Amino acid sequence: MPSYTVTVATGSQWFAGTDDYIYLSLVGSTGCSEKHLLDKPFYNDFERGAIDSYDVTVDEELGEIQLVKIEKRKYWLHDDWYLKYITLKTPYGDYIEFPCYRWITGEGEIILRDGRAKLARDDQIHVLKQHRRKELETRQKLYRWMEWNPGFPLSIDAKCHKDLPRDIQFDSEKGVDFVLNYSKAMENLFINRFMHMFQSSWSDFADFEKIFVKISNTISERVMNHWQEDLMFGYQFLNGCNPVLIQQCMKLPEKLPVTTEMVECSLERQLTLQQEVEQGNIFIVDFELLDGIDANKTDPCTLQFLAAPICLLYKNLDNKMVPIAIQLNQVPGDENPIFLPSDAKYDWLLAKIWVRSSDFHVHQTITHLLRTHLVSEVFGIAMYRQLPAVHPIFKLLVAHVRFTIAINTKAREQLICEYGLFDKANATGGGGHVQMVQRAMQELTYTSLCFPEAIKARGMDSTEDIPYYFYRDDGLLVWEAIKKFTAEVVGIYYESDQVVEEDQELQDFVKDVYVYGIRGNKASGFPKSIKTREKLSEYLTVVIFTASAQHAAVNFGQYDWCSWIPNAPPTMRAPPPTAKGVVTIEQIVETLPDRGRSCWHLGAVWALSQFQENELFLGMYPEEHFIEKPVKEAMARFRKDLDTVVSVIAERNKNKKLPYYYLSPDRIPNSVAI
């Protein structure tokens, strides 16, 4: 009688093992086997991290094995099991791999196909077509779209983390409890004694050092020592944690009536302001999005304020960016003066602090939350709903949506919900952050997620004219490495543009993103379908780059740049000044966040800047969803290309007082998971 050797690998994460009964059946082209109990006498099967082998003898020839069915039945209490993969050795000595990487819960069962990636057109056998269809039907019931707030991208239909499908939950929910993590962060930073001191102001700038943790030679310490300098202020628009707003000023806006006379002492080329604009030396950051956004009113004891500044920057003769004019609100007038470097010291300093605070709000809510977290969740939900596990694009993308839906669900549960942690310290809490996302959704375009095009659209692409823009330089290297990799994978599975166009599952995935994620907004430019291999490669690059590199660039520098509170105040407790010559140091300190809010802010930026335990970085694919040699070779080339990028960045950073490393691939996690 034919005999098969079945090898079963159990996951190594917490609680992955099981004591339940595990049964296996084989489905072949000429017949099906009986149900076999996988059990060895006097042996604890399916322990966490174990690889167990069993001999399975069948009554008759089964032909080519098409499916493996695994059933789990209760032994004592329900005991979830994480199955990594099954390997089958046939009676003829062939080995067949069946990747799984999923949880089997309750009295559950799972039917696996072998690991070769297949498009729907490759499946001619009825049983395989049926398996493909059933898997998607089941997933579409599990992964449902929901509107969390009007105007937002749709998200997963789950009120809290435990409502999520087991396969996308965190291994340990405790590890991503924001309340716990922020409190733990404050404890680690020895600042918990201040955390309840709301309404209590610091006495001066030096007083902020009481909650500032000195880690020698870090960027944060350099920020603390140089934050008041114009060069440090300008540098952050290029290489801080929100390097996506600065753009070349092609024409001075009418709402900023600045003249050559006002800024003459800042211009170094003996040209008029208009001539400097024409020569490409003037840059602008406009926080128009914040105009009219409601400030946080959740604490009746503390008034909080927002502004919508416009900041003009100048590229000096050293090719460094310095601010030359700041107007704190959008409509010019006597009570909205243009602040200048030639003004009194504290007038100019407070104007810059207002810009830094506004930058913090746009960074947190738009650059970080909307444009990485929420967008990546959209790609993740659409992938689970429309691509079966056997589809090559599912196999490619699954590592890049790992834990994204879970972290966002947790954020909606604890962080950005009504009365959530976001309300504690941020001036845009209490609903302002919701208004901001609703506005920014109108501006969210597909091309703005295509890194090279986004850089070009802001006029920031010339390395010769703007030499110190490391975010751009490193981002382009990573984008190209990802694009080369996705093009290779697409080339392996799609022999022509026609095959792309006829792949209905792929088209449904793209359509789901457009219709539900982007809410069918035509102006967004998101494709409704994809017709060529080149466009598919670009689309996949957008998905992977957004989840990995873009998120890393705007997330992991938060402690570096925002831990010195005056450099990134999460709230302001007095309105913007309406006249010059009246600002004092005392007034600035009274405007900055109080002790309690400073501590919550510090706990947040510390917690958000930490990598996950067992973090998987770009190019690491420990789950072997792909088994074919050509793809494995493409992955090896991808890792090699990324190693080259790591070396280039390390060489550039040598001896730099302010190294830029957020886009070094060895520091870019595969997915949005924090």
TrEMBL record:
Entry annotated with the keyword Iron: yes
Domain PLAT: 2-118
Keyword Iron attached: yes
Pfam (any one): PLAT
Pathway: Lipid metabolism
Cofactor: Fe cation
Domain Lipoxygenase: 118-674
Subcellular location, record wording: Cytoplasm
Highest taxon above the source species: Eukaryota
Alphabetically ordered keywords of this record: Cytoplasm, Dioxygenase, Iron, Lipid metabolism, Metal-binding, Oxidoreductase
Main localisation: cytoplasm
Entry similarity comment: Belongs to the lipoxygenase family.
Protein name (Swiss-Prot/TrEMBL): Polyunsaturated fatty acid 5-lipoxygenase
Species per Swiss-Prot/TrEMBL record: Echinops telfairi
Gene: ALOX5
